[in-house]
Design brief:
The complex is a heterodimer of chains A (417) and B (86).
Chain A: H1 5-13, E1 31-37, H2 41-54, E2 59-62, E3 78-79, H3 88-100, H4 102-106, E4 117-121, H5 124-139, E5 145-148, H6 149-155, E6 170-174, E7 178-179, H7 182-195, E8 199-201, E9 206-212, E10 215-221, E11 226-233, H8 239-244, E12 253-264, E13 272-275, E14 280-284, E15 289-300, H9 308-321, E16 330-340, E17 347-350, E18 356-360, H10 370-383, H11 397-400
Parallel strand pairs in A: 1-2, 1-11, 2-8, 4-13, 11-18
Antiparallel strand pairs in A: 3-7, 4-6, 5-6, 9-10, 10-11, 12-15, 12-16, 13-14, 14-15, 17-18
Helix pairs in contact in A: 2-7, 2-10, 3-10
Chain B: E1 2-5, E2 9-12, E3 16-21, H1 34-42, E4 50-57, E5 62-69, E6 75-80
Antiparallel strand pairs in B: 1-2, 3-4, 4-5, 5-6
The chains are: A alpha/beta (417), B mainly beta (86).
C-alpha cells in the first residue's frame, strides 16, 4: 500500500479497518544470496539500498529481537552533518542529503525536522575551533553560521549567558541539523526493504557463522541453519559477540550511554542545543518531552541502563545551562549500548574471511549515519569495493596507523571517546 | 555500583577512574612483532558477562583489577594490579 492523503480520508470514513501489516513475517528460507546479521537501523537501510540501488533482493535480515528493539529505538534522534575530518565530513554530508530525500524516497513520514543545531562555545580558543569546524562544513558543501553572543540570544533566550564557569561566547549554528522520529526510520526502511522482496526475519538469533576454506558459507541460527553466499555483520552494540563467531576480535569496547526525557511540555526548546563543555545536549520531541543526554558512563557495559553518577552529572549540566529546566520533571531514563572504537569513528569493511563483511563502531553517532551507512555498506557488499564516502572506514587503520580518524582530537585509544 | 579497594574497602564508584580491559596487563615482549602490539593496543574480547578490568582509586592511587559483570553491573572481586594478575 502506498501511503497518501486519500488513504487517510478513506480510512477515516471506513472505521480504520483497511490498514494492513506493514511487512511480512516470513519463514527463513534455506538459502539466500546475502544474509545481514542485525535488523537495526543500519541493517534495514543496508537491505533497502541493496534492493533499490543494486537490484539484489534474495536477502534475509536476521534480527534476534523485533524490528526496532535495539539502538534504533533507544537514541536521542539527532541528525547533523557537522563533522570536520576528511572521511567523516563527506560521509555525514552524504547522509544528511539522504535524510533530506528520505521521506519521499521511502513514502514514509520519518518526521525529519531540520530545526537547526547550535553548538555553544565559552572561550576564545573554543570559538577558533568552531570557526575552523564551520569552515570545514562549508567547504564540504554543508551549512554553518557563526553566532556571537547576541546571535545566540536571539535563538536561545532562555539559557544562562553569564554562568561564572561557562559564560556563553557564541555558538555554531548548523541550520540543516535537527531530529527525526527514530522508530519511524526503522519502520520506513523495513517496509521499503520488505516491499522489494527482502525477508525480515525477527526472533532469529545467529548462533554461528559457517566458514569453509576461508570463505563464508552461511549461518547457524535459533531457527535453523541458513546458507548464504555473503554474510554481512551489522550488529552495533553486540558486534564483538557476532564477530567472535567468525574467530575475529574487533577494536571495539561496548559502553552504556544514557538518555532522559521529561514529561510533555508546550513548545519551549526550538533547536537542538549542544553544550559540549557540560557534555550535555537537548532537544524537544514532537510529543513535547525534553529529550537530553550526556556522556558515557565510562565503563564497559551491556546492561542498557546506567548508574547514578552520570545521571547527576547530566542534571547538573542541564541546570547550569538552562536553569528553567529545573521546573520540568524527568519522566524516564534509559541506556543504549555503544560500539566504542579507539578513534571514535566507525568501520565499514571486508574481513579476512571471503564473503564476510563488517559494519560496526558507530560510537554514539549511529542514528544520523543510518542512511549513508546502509548506502555505503550495500555498495561494498554488492560490488566488493568500498563506496567513495566510506572508503576511509577501514578495519586495518588501527593496525597500520594510517587513516586514524580522531574527530575529538583526544587520542586513538579505548576509553578516550 | 560500589567497588572494593584492597587498601580502603568498599567505596562508591565515583571515587574510581576507569581505564579499560585488563588485557593491557599482558604486554607483549618487545620482539613480539607489529601485529602482536596492534592487537594489544586495540583489539578487545569485549565480553557480555564476566569481565576483568582496570580501575584507578583516585584517593589512594591504587591500580585495581576488578572482577565485574558487564550485563548485571555486579562487582565480585578486586585485587591490586601490582600483584600481577591478568
Amino acid at each position: 500500500m502506498r501511503y497518501n492523503a486519500w488513504q487517510i480520508f478513506k480510512e477515516a470514513f471506513t472505521g480504520q479497518t483497511g490498514w494492513k501489516p506493514v511487512w511480512r513475517d516470513p519463514e527463513p528460507k534455506k538459502e539466500y544470496d546475502i544474509v545481514l546479521i542485525g535488523g537495526g537501523g543500519h541493517g534495514l537501510s543496508t537491505a533497502y539500498y541493496l534492493a533499490k540501488n543494486h537490484g539484489l533482493t534474495n536477502i534475509a535480515v536476521l534480527e534476534k529481537g523485533y524490528i526496532g528493539s535495539g539502538n534504533i529505538g533507544r537514541n536521542t534522534t539527532i541528525v547533523r552533518a557537522n563533522y570536520f575530518l576528511p572521511g567523516n565530513s563527506e560521509f555525514y554530508s552524504h547522509s544528511l542529503k539522504l535524510w533530506e530525500g528520505l521521506e519521499s524516497d521511502l513514502n514514509y513520514n520519518v518526521m525529519h525536522s531540520q530545526r537547526g543545531l547550535i553548538n555553544l562555545f565559552h572561550s576564545d580558543g573554543q570559538r577558533d575551533a568552531f570557526v575552523r569546524r564551520g569552515n570545514a562544513m562549508i567547504n564540504q558543501g554543508d551549512d554553518a553560521v557563526l553566532l556571537d553572543r547576541d546571535g545566540v540570544r536571539q535563538h536561545l533566550p532562555y539559557i544562562d549567558f553569564d554562568n561564572v564557569r561557562f559564560p556563553v561566547y557564541g555558538g555554531l549554528l548548523h541550520p540543516r541539523g535537527g531530529t527525526a522520529r527514530h522508530d519511524a526510520v526503522a519502520w520506513g526502511y523495513a517496509r521499503g526493504a520488505d516491499q522489494r522482496g527482502v525477508d525480515l526475519i525477527q526472533n532469529c538469533e545467529v548462533t554461528g557463522i559457517d566458514i569453509s576454506n576461508g570463505k563464508v558459507t552461511g549461518v547457524q541460527t535459533s531457527r535453523g541453519p541458513i546458507r548464504a553466499k555473503k554474510v554481512a555483520m551489522v550488529a552495533a552494540g553486540r558486534s564483538g559477540q557476532v564477530a567472535a563467531m567468525a574467530g575475529m576480535r574487533l577494536p571495539i569496547e561496548s559502553h552504556v550511554l544514557q538518555a532522559f526525557v521529561t514529561e510533555g511540555l508546550k513548545p519551549v526548546i526550538d533547536h537542538v542545543v549542544s553544550f559540549g563543555m557540560g557534555h550535555f545536549y537537548i532537544s524537544q520531541s514532537d510529543k513535547g518531552g525534553l529529550v537530553f543526554g550526556g556522556d558515557l558512563d565510562f565503563y564497559s557495559s551491556y546492561a542498557q541502563r546506567g548508574n547514578l553518577p552520570m545521571k547527576e552529572h547530566v542534571m547538573e549540566a542541564a541546570m547550569t545551562l538552562m536553569p528553567m529546566i529545573g521546573k520540568a520533571k524527568v519522566l524516564r531514563s534509559w541506556g543504549g549500548i555503544m560500539d566504542m572504537s579507539p578513534d571514535g569513528s566507525p568501520i565499514i569493511d571486508r574481513t579476512h574471511v571471503d564473503g564476510l563483511f563488517v559494519n560496526c563502531g558507530w560510537n554514539y553517532g549511529g542514528f544520523k549515519a543510518v542512511p549513508a551507512s546502509g548506502w555505503a555498506y550495500a555498495h561494498l557488499i554488492a560490488t566488493g569495493k568500498p563506496h567513495d564516502t566510506a572508503a576511509r572506514y577501514r578495519l586495518d587503520r588501527f593496525t597500520t596507523g594510517r587513516g586514524i580518524m580522531d574527530e575529538e582530537g583526544t587520542g586513538s585509544q579505548h576509553n578516550l571517546h | 555500583m560500589r567497588i572494593t579497594c584492597p587498601h580502603c574497602g568498599e567505596r562508591d564508584r565515583r571515587e574510581f577512574t576507569y581505564q579499560g580491559a585488563s588485557e593491557i596487563m599482558a604486554r607483549p615482549d618487545a620482539d613480539a612483532g607489529v601485529s602482536a602490539f596492534a592487537d594489544y593496543l586495540h583489539l578487545r574480547d569485549n565480553p557480555a558477562g564476566d569481565t576483568r578490568d582496570m580501575w584507578y582509586h583516585d584517593p589512594c592511587g591504587a591500580w585495581i583489577v576488578v572482577d565485574r559483570n558487564t550485563v548485571t553491573h555486579a562487582v565480585t572481586g578486586s585485587t591490586l594490579a601490582r600483584e600481577g594478575r591478568t
